[in-house]
Amino acid sequence: MSAKIIERASGLLDRRHFLRSSGQSVLSASAVALLVGCESMAAKSSSTTDTSGDVDILNVALGLEWEAIGAYQIGAESGLLEPAVLSVAVLFQSHHKEHADALVATIRQFGGSPVDPKSQAEYAEDLDVASIRNGTDVLRLAARLEKGAANAYLGVIPAFQDPSLAQVSARLAADETMHWTALASALGQPLPANALTFGA
Fold first, then answer.
1. Is 20 a domain residue?
2. pTM of whole model > 0.90?
3. Could you say which residues of the chain have pLDDT below 70?
4. With the C-alpha atoms ordered 45, 48, 172, 129, is the resulting torsion angle positive or negative?
């Protein structure tokens, strides 16, 4: 499986890259099982799967989840979002917080040290917040991040031998796609004209 690295405006590694890790390494079955809270599946998988390198990969994932949380916080505090849109942004941020909590727990389960979030000022610089002028700009930023997340989770599905783990990844992708769809609708964007838009 070849690596497809999409350069993000922030210059950070994209989510697909952390899952594929230059096309050579993906999250082990046990890591994904722990990530979604299924310790019995994790125990079964870890007996037959090499988990080396998972902590580093998960920490990159955690860093990106921190970034998403930071981005939504910046949007919430910007004063640029209408109340109804703000409530949805806060809801989506809560989903990313749950993802981050799961990643922290998984990294610790593997004996690693979770990376800390950056400061809001650092995220503001990374995401070029100075260029944001209105609520539409906020939504465009969020939509770009959410689409990257959906593509990442879809991109890892072919790596799994266990169908249940592929299903977990698909469910995560569905959440991120739901986020993107709501944001695209708020932006007045049409539905994709072609099939198979995500995960390509």
1. no
2. no
3. 1-54, 57, 156, 159-169
4. positive
